[in-house]
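Hi everyone, sorry if this is the wrong subforum. Our group has a chain we'd like a structural model of before ordering constructs, and none of us has done structure prediction before. Sequence below.
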Amino acid sequence: MREHDLLPPGPVVVAVSGGTDSVALLLLLSELAPKLGLDLHVAHFDHRLRPKAAAKDAQFVADLAQSRGATIRLGRADAPPTSEDDAREQRYAFLRRAARDVGATLIATGHTRDDQAETVLLHLTRGSGIAGLAGMRPRRDDIVRPLLAIGRADTLAICEHANVEPREDRSNADPKYARNRIRHKVLPELERINPQAKAALARLAEAAATATDAIDRAAERTLAAAGTNDGISLDRLDAALVDDALALAWTRATGRSLAAKHRAALAALATERDGSASLDLPGGRAIREYDRLRIEGSPAAHEAPAPELPLGDGVVEWRGWTFTVGSHRSGTFSAPAPKDGELVVRGRRPGDRLAGRLRIKVQDLFTDAKVPAAARATHPLVATGSGEVWWVVGLKHATGNADPGRWIVANPPPAQIEALRRYTGNIDSSERVRTG
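Answer:
Right subforum, don't worry. Here is the predicted structure as tokens:
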């Protein structure tokens, strides 16, 4: 937690299913909370997959939370999930709602080194590249994983030491799930070869993460250097980084990550220079005209929802942007005092208008500034919890009486700085984007 600065002081949502790992997470954090200044809020979600056990699971988690001095929030799916991905999406949507309600910017989950090993093997089996071998990160956006450094045997020992008997989910033994087959069949065989196979796979993930981060930084630099008003200048891309740079550009434009075969197809499109050609891939279309490549996200990708995070005092990370909020007067933007709730940072929504007398459409601001359509869904807006937009970062803020004690400084991702300069021009002097 110290190494990755996972949990600064303040409120945090702890996801607790009732199983061994999440229970151990709550036990550990409740002991560390006074020292670290943490305000714990437990969240438990019922996927409606275990109707007979769900009520007992919820009561167990509620009792445990109360015994540890934490609040408890319970959620329930409207209908059973149709897939593992559907279940994950429902769960994280609930966790983020819970975080917003309590003013938390981070959600802690109980993923362990064992989960990391399983994830690496799953990605490897499915043909992942080096990015997939990095597995889960200690922190990804608003999700933190404090237990990645320990294994399931450790979490079980923690529960036993506290005399707490976790709830067991029988679906964890169901062989129809690929992860369970890896857990109960593949990993035991690997441990016959190397008893420390899980730790070895976790080290592989760390090494892959380090390499991936270095490649991503290089890809960001070459992509920024190749950016033009009408797309990407292919001749200005570093030849060794074309694949990674275009994959990064695709994710930014569409919100989707490309599989290895799709990355290869996109790179192949970029090798040609004669005439025009296009390629449809998950989330959008790539259009090459001579030495220029343009990526257009699908309409659904343009409107892809971005997470909504509360802007409390301190630092908030949102899709690569860093928002620093505080009471000092040295910032570059003074937020008007909201009349209807605390400020949040989020992506645009249909019908968004700037607060104030003129009620300017956010869509019109983007159009006038020639912000690429694919970039609009991931451009940050500062708004109140009820939806009033107070600042379209880098473009315009609402007029009104400013609160001189509330400052917000927005630092964009390095790879977006040049793009911002291209389509914002002379940024409003009262709220310029600070890039340092």
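For your construct planning: The chain has a mean pLDDT of 82. The longest strand covers residues 402-411.
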